[in-house]
Hints:
By secondary structure, this protein is an alpha/beta fold. The protein has 14 helices and eight strands. Strand 5 (112-117), helix 5 and strand 6 form a beta-alpha-beta unit. The chain starts with 9 loop residues before the first helix and ends with a helix.
Amino acid sequence: MASSFTPPTFEQLYADIDHDVVSSLMAFRREQPLKHVDEGGTRWNYVSLGRGDESVLFLHGMGGAYDIWWRQIDALKARYRVLSATYPPVHDLESLRHGIATILDREQITHVNVIGTSLGGYLAQYLIARHHDLVQRVIFGNTFPPNEVIRRNTRWIGKLLPLLPERFVMRSFRQTIANDLYPALVYSPLVRAFLLEQSYGLMSKPQFVGRYHCVIEQFTPPNLHEREIPALIVESDNDPSVAPALRERLKTTYPSAAVHTLQAAGHFPYLNQPEQYTQLITQFLGK
């Protein structure tokens, strides 16, 4: 028997959010057409806009997409070339690296400032480890260094993920949003709406599973001090997705990095505290 479930509409998901915020997201999606590039038989979708002598690359986390950064992109595009991509369903960091490298090559960019959050911050570390001459400056946002903790703590769900139907995977993701992420964000309706929108069709199970595999992959972290790459660690004091021990390990792994701790910002401060997050970015890039 076919399911009669109808996912909520955009209007329903974003009904409780300030009209100006919703309008700006809709305008960004409407006015910034997606570009496409193929790498290894996989299509990557991304945006490239703005102007300036320097470029900025945004890398989202497990539940994100290219437009989760729309307010930061809008703020930077007058001074920088800005790029942001959505990860396709690939299952290792090397495939993500190849895709990013293909986009940068297509856009004729040889040096870039990287801003990554969660999985994106992990990918930023991997990019530096493999392309030490690519990254000018880097921001590691709400992320973690290479570790065995996440793999160990999620080993059972990691084994089950490939076997479960997509509806169960996304239902589990929505439960995490409701029980963990949403309360830590002081019940931000915007974060909730954006993540739920991903879970109701914008993100597929293969994308979600692939991103999980990338999160638990191991590699040797780069030495930022030796490579003279300025770095900023942005963390939240109540991040439910990055345990305090992993936050401390990140700072120990990159002792030359500056650190800024946000208060009660949860795992998505660029959505939850956009003005403060954007100010941190512009100040760091302007140094």
